[in-house]
Design brief:
Blueprint: H1 2-26, H2 43-65, H3 78-97, H4 106-116, H5 125-135, H6 143-169, H7 173-184, H8 187-190, H9 200-219, H10 225-237, H11 248-256, H12 262-278, H13 281-284, H14 290-299, H15 316-319, H16 322-346, H17 355-373, H18 379-382, H19 391-406, H20 410-431, H21 439-445
Helix pairs in contact: 1-16, 1-20, 2-20, 3-6, 4-5, 6-7, 6-9, 7-19, 9-10, 9-17, 10-12, 11-17, 16-19, 16-20, 17-19, 19-20
């Protein structure tokens, strides 16, 4: 019976990854195409994608058999710090050379708010407040360049933090590298890297930092106050980061079960609540002005503009429609199709009663509910980045489930890892910095909801 389940998972992964590749190489004219189209916009991309599919599976299978892949993880050295700095420099260069295109009006609102120093948006309350003060000494024309540079820095932090989280999840060097590569190659992460002009690189960085710190707290290496403080304060910078809060229950339960962890947990909770209280001081003039903050965030959420006249959530009729189901599927394919597939097929292999898996699941589950229920005012295509930063948790959980499955199937795992990376790579070739390609058609496929 276990052998049959392993074979079914192997076939399911191979079939799912092959289907994702087929969407990109064949580009069928379906009802919605924005999650996979445009590999053919340049002839070379098709051939590079084909080379990835041919080369990566056998190369990965070979690498997975090397002794180094099974070696235990060592202590971080000075080389790790040098690599992190080099990665940040590479991201900065990438952002200056190939900045991400814009497909909605939110970036221009952000630039205008920062340049004029008059932005009042409760959804981005402390982030706007911080950016405006950093831009104050500059000429208004420089605001856009400042935001892009900050986005590059935030993206660098996100990539390093994702690698740190992967080290917490993997048992060996090979597993840590596999999880890192699958996390980095998710479109929701990769597209936010090259100078993305919006608030979402910050949301990605905070999510990745939280996951890294939270996994460290579960392992007993990081004080629980750090991830708790990040989760409690983050929504004041960007309201969508409230999705991190349910997972803090796992940190509290894990620390509370250890006698030596109860005092640090109490101190951490106290510090996190105090930090969340102090977060309202700059904009509201008083600590713990949470009710006023929620009221401002609600007023600035655009709830009156979407399909529902009374909510930022979708009305039930649209929520249950075929059009919305297609949009949800294509959003997931765009943001992290490989990670979602790995999670669906291998999720049953996640270690039971494993706090790390539970923590990641309690980030992914609210994110999925958010994808389904939230009304993207500019349509799911133009507002895709509303859901982008969830790829951090989805890719980590999917990759974790995948490597857990692969421990029982090492021979198949090496090949399928290469195929998964090839599928992610082909997806990036098709969609990375290509959101503006054939824009009118994709906006018709996923029209604005603004009334």
């Amino acid at each position: 019976m276990p052998h049959t389940r392993h074979r079914a998972a192997t076939l399911g992964l191979a079939a799912g990854l092959a289907a994702e590749l087929a969407l990109h190489f064949l580009e069928p004219r379906l009802a919605i195409t924005w999650s996979y189209a445009h590999l053919g916009r340049r002839a070379a991309l098709w051939w590079i994608g084909a080379a990835l599919v041919l080369v990566l599976p056998p190369a990965s299978a070979w690498a997975w058999r090397r002794p180094g892949a099974a070696r235990a993880l060592g202590v971080l050295s000075w080389r790790s710090a040098v690599a992190a700095v080099a990665l940040a420099v590479a991201v900065l260069a990438l952002g200056r050379t190939w900045p991400a295109p814009l497909v909605s009006i939110d970036p221009w609102f952000l630039v205008k708010s920062v340049a004029e120093g008059t932005g009042q948006n409760g959804r981005w309350y402390l982030l706007l407040w911080s950016y405006e003060r950093l831009a104050a000494p500059l000429h208004p024309d420089q605001a856009q360049h400042l935001i892009r540079a900050l986005s590059d820095l935030e993206a660098s932090v996100a990539l390093v933090a994702l690698a740190g989280a992967a080290r917490r999840l993997g048992r060996t060097r090979g597993e840590a590298v596999a999880i890192t590569l699958l996390g980095w190659s998710a479109f929701g992460t990769a597209q936010l890297v090259p100078g993305y002009l919006d608030v979402y690189p910050f949301a990605l960085a905070v999510t990745a930092l939280y996951l890294c710190a939270a996994l460290g707290a579960l392992a007993g290496d990081v004080h629980p106050g750090w991830p708790l403080a990040i989760a409690f304060v983050a929504p004041f910078f960007y309201i969508g980061l409230v999705l991190l809060l349910p997972s803090t229950v796992v940190i509290a339960l894990s620390a509370g079960r250890r006698a030596e962890g109860r005092a640090p947990l109490a101190l951490g909770l106290l510090a996190a609540v105090a930090a969340a209280g102090a977060a309202t001081l700059p904009g509201f003039g008083a600590p713990f002005a949470w009710r006023a903050f929620v009221a401002r965030a609600h007023a600035d959420s655009g709830w009156q503009l979407g399909l529902s006249p009374t909510s930022s959530l979708l009305p039930l009729g649209y929520l249950l429609s075929g059009a919305h189901a297609r949009e949800v599927v294509h959003t997931l394919l765009l943001v992290d199709g490989v990670g979602v597939l790995l999670l669906v097929v291998c999720g049953a292999r996640l270690p039971r009663r494993e706090p790390a898996a539970a923590l990641l699941a309690l980030v992914v589950a609210p994110w999925l509910a958010y994808v389904v229920a939230m009304d993207p005012l500019f349509g799911a295509f133009a507002d895709w980045d509303l859901f982008s930063y969830g790829a951090a948790a989805a890719s980590l959980l999917g990759a974790y489930a995948f490597v857990a499955w692969g421990r029982a199937e090492p021979r198949a795992f090496g090949w399928l890892l290469g195929l998964a990376l090839a599928a992610a790579g082909v997806h990036l070739l098709a969609r990375w910095n290509a959101l503006d390609v054939d824009l009118p058609r994709h906006l018709l496929e996923s029209p604005y909801h603004v009334r």
